[in-house]
Amino acid sequence: MDGVNVKFYQQPGRSRQQPQKPVRVHVEGMTHDLRGIARHEGKPLFIDNALPGEQVSVRIERRHGRYLEGRALHIEEASRERVSPRCQHFGRCGGCSLQYLDSQAQLTHKEQAVLGQLERFAAVQPDQLAPPLGSQPFGYRSRARLAVYYHRKQKQLLVGFREARSRQVISLAQCPVLAPELECLLQPLQQLIGSLKAFDQVSHLELLLGERGPAVLFRHLQPLCEEDQQRLQAFAEQHLQQLYLQGDSHSVHCFWSREGNPRLSYPLSAFSLSLAYQPLDFTQVNRPLNEAMVTRAMEWLDPGPGERVLDLFCGLGNFSLPAARLGAEVVGVEGSATMVQRAQLNAQSAGIETARFHVLDLTEEGVLRSLCPNGVDKVVLDPPRAGAAETISDICQLGPASILYISCDPATLARDAGLLRDRAYRLQRLCVMDMFPQTGHIESMALFVQSGN
Residue 212: CB partners within 8 Å, gap ≥ 6? Predict the structure, then answer.
């Protein structure tokens, strides 16, 4: 694979900020966000589309005080891990930036990135490194948001994702990471929007794949006329299970449903659960990997009858309800009243009476001690990218024997692992989860136990 030329879309006007000639460098390793790293002018150079061991020609795009950023234009000596990107929009579309890296190698590098962050920022390593939870490399996304933009000068309707580092929209002819049931809707949706009288009043779409089939949410800026509504219904009858509308009031309503029941849901089959959600609720985009994650989480946490389990950032009940199904007394905590209501309804639908849910601001000191004055046996937390630093002290004061941490950012996991180490918890098990193949996004699961255990 020597001598690989790589074509990338370049935003107009950027060339004025770039040197006339590319620089030739040897890629020494990968950063925590899976960019190649080299040295140039005595500074680290972080390189998009570059792999360890490669000799590359790089265009430097941004200069900072302590480091540089660039993009490989020509691969003079290619890594054995390099593959041809599958998507025709690669290099221009802002998603799926790792398609040039073999899928199994992506998982290996993600694992190394997590271990590196833990060692560098917390001096922590796991007692046991469990096998990664892998995913099918393509066709895994069960939801996506597409931007819709009408270019008035060019009189062109664009439906797709944003371009890399830009607000510009690239119109998609394909998207291999989408579930096939959603990818096949791309061209019909563009044709549908182009046929509407209010074609320039649609701002974005939400594509969703529920248990029963595909659904779409249309976000429109002006009320839709009767003719447009008829076109939407005809499209839904041919392609969808549900069609939702979100008008200028931001409220969402089900415009059409095939079975008269607008319920969206995803399964957790190992626990005989089906969790209902609404189009704008947070759910994991990789449904098979989510099932595998929850199953392993319950294996590691091992909740049982009589045990008190606290689930923080509980959302719809993704971990709470399986733990309750296994017999534990579960308390779920979430900052969103809407999500707590969804979790309560999911518990009722499943016939689960051993889970209760509360709306709390977890950044407030002491709220967990007030909620659980007698402590808890085990904790699950699935925080956002910012992590759970403000909550760690409160968690530890409850005295749980084990804490299962689901992370979507290796840097904040490392920081919080250091906080837990300082409070006499050790990292017993760790695994990386490939929730987002073809991207640099890294998810992992870490089990902390009291050091005496």
Answer: 241, 258, 259, 265
